[in-house]
Amino acid sequence: MTTIAEKCAAHGRTYIAQGEYAISGQEDAVISTLLGSCVATCLWDPVARIGGMNHFLLPEGPPSGTVVSSFGANAMELLINALARSGAARGRLRAKVFGGAEMYKGLTSAGSRNGLFVLSYLFREGIPCDGQSLGGYHARRVEFVPAEGRARQKFVSDARVVETLPVPAKTPDVEFF
């Protein structure tokens, strides 16, 4: 897998996976993804009528820089810069965010950390968030029409939350004699 996966959604449907993003200004383009604890950010410039979507795994990654586009800040900058190169103005961008489910209840907080990260990032960068569907316990399928800034989601009904049992408290050392 490459470290940067940019797709141009020219016509029709473009699917993005973890660590990827796609942009388009074509009227009939649709960008889609499937999310669990990952987050997808849909950004759109309503004047330039161009938009894009990313799909990231965690807010931050290891210092080694492996697959940097899978981590929050890098994924956001890659998408914003690609939109700017295609004629979008950073100051006009609007956002809609999805994902951040807790797919393994009690085991990890990756979903909630992703959701908090993206909302905080957008706030710091002055990008208004027009809509969000974050958290919960279900996977989502998201479709984004970048030229119009329209997004829709569908919860995936066959995805199940994996319940984890609480780790028992450490028992005191017992000595038999």
TrEMBL record:
UniProt-recorded name of the protein: Probable chemoreceptor glutamine deamidase CheD
Entries under SUPFAM superfamilies matching the protein: CNF1/YfiH-like putative cysteine hydrolases (SSF64438)
Catalytic activity: L-glutaminyl-[protein] + H2O = L-glutamyl-[protein] + NH4(+)
Pfam families: CheD
Superkingdom assignment: Bacteria
Primary enzyme class: hydrolase
Function text: Probably deamidates glutamine residues to glutamate on methyl-accepting chemotaxis receptors (MCPs), playing an important role in chemotaxis.
MF (Gene Ontology): protein-glutamine glutaminase activity
Gene3D superfamilies linked to this entry: 3.30.1330.200
Gene Ontology terms describing biological process: chemotaxis
Family listed: Belongs to the CheD family.
EC number: 3.5.1.44
Keyword Membrane carried by entry: no
CDD domains assigned: CheD
Keywords: Chemotaxis, Hydrolase, Receptor
